[in-house]
Triokinase/FMN cyclase
Amino acid sequence: MSSVTTKKLINKVHECERESNEGLVAVHPGLSLVEGYTVVVRTDTSQFLSENKVILISGGGSGHEPGHAGYVGKGMLTACACGSVFASPPPLCIMAAVNAACQQKAGCDIIMIVTNYTGDRLNFGIACERARIKGHNTEMVVVGEDCALDSVDHSAGRRGLAGTVLIHKIAGAMAEMGKSLSEIVSYLNTVKGKMGTIGLCLSPCSVPGSAPTFTLQYDEMELGLGVHGEAGVKRMKVQSAKDAVKTMMDHMTNKETSTHIDITTGDRVALLINNLGGTSVLELNLVAKEAISYLENRGIAVDRAYCGSFLTSLEMAGISITILHVDDTVLEYLDLPTSSPAWRPSYIAPGQKLRKTPNLVKVPSEDKIVSDVTAAKLDAQTSGIVYKAVQSACKKLLAMEHDLNDLDKQSGDNDTGSTLAAGAKAILEKLGPASAPTLPVECPHSLALNLGQITETVMGGSSGALYSLFFTGAAQELKTASKESLCLALQTGLLAIMKYGGAKPGYRTMIDPLNAAIESMTHPKNSALSLTEALKEAATAATKAAADTVHMDAQAGRASYVNKSLLNKPDPGAVAVASWLSAVADVL
């Protein structure tokens, strides 16, 4: 294991816990911080006390944010005591939470919700006894729902994991509804036994000022670890999301282990997908999809699903999955609104009582090209020339793929050639044989619309969008077939690119050769030239303009973010435009 500490955005190692809570209450002024302690309490405690509702106190080591301080608020916890990173808060800190919640009021009803770790049980246990001595009616509910362990015979028992947050939510709802201490304790002790959680990680975390707590090879993941990085039940090779979820669910429902959770066809459950800290939202949603599919394929009704960062392990990359058996009563508690900043409810459509995986929404397809049937049609000979021009331009771009990629290295992407080649290849496939073209080469208007759709679909990104704008804009001027309409088409296509892309001539982009070609075609000295001659002159002007981009400052596109001294070659997009224009002119 490396002894090198990891980088973190903190000020001082031993002050990060309190400063984190200072940030929490600064953002959420409905929460307050107790002076001298890392204790977060509801700002409206006086009103809460006047209603004689049960006080809920939880806490544990820091590093699990937003747990548990993020769940303080109306409808959830009254106060939270936070220890050092991954360390239980001492009894004095917990008693500060009790005193902040009770505000000198005697005989308060208090429930302490504690995760099943030895330090938490001991320290909260001491505080529980001291609160009783002070005259408060105090009970402790210990949550341990870890399904990873094969046996608890020689261990401290099942660890408390992200499922604890669901207990916070249920307890908070019951307290808000005015349920008694005995009612809440009895119900929580029943519900917590109907819940299971298992974790999986891809990389470790590190306590501020320390090296990572363990190591994993690049191709490994660990199943069943604890929220402090405690060892799991097995280390295995990295799997796909679907296989990883199956491995987790199979283990937590395996009847041969003493810590499994029983689920059978027809059961109703709530599902919680929890980010252990360093997992992207993209991955979380993907895992949620797979977990819901796994359960539904087994005939389990997932009445509620939650996905997000609920109880983390600093920056650990990984997830945990929690399953809770539910009925209408549990759902009522889970659905009761709360002001706590960290709770993320499941979005249910208005009027919908139970979560249901929605069917795909069907919408009319946009892939049908609607062209003007009155647009001009070309004769067979001219259509053949257009066919060859399109074919030649595409072959030219395919041949230049490597060279254009090489030019694009200066802006760090190295993909211009590949992107344009993908578009060219798709156009050639759609073009069909010369004897029976499958693109409408006989109708310039329809052809341009088709080219716009192909480029936007196949090329994607900025290049696909720019070429789609160009061809779609140009199509409107190609309803007539003439030299003038072609010139107007180029102008309209260029204006569309400039309008939406933001670039102008001189910005070192594909606009420069296009603009030069148009200026050549519209110059008075070329007015008497034939279409063939005008296109040759335009291609020559475009080639020169593309070469001249080497002397320009990039003011648009990715190249604009690159140091000027590194841009010592012509712009690849400009070179590509000049090349396919030249290919078209050569055919003519």
User: Anything to note?
Assistant: The chain has two domains: 13-335, 380-587.
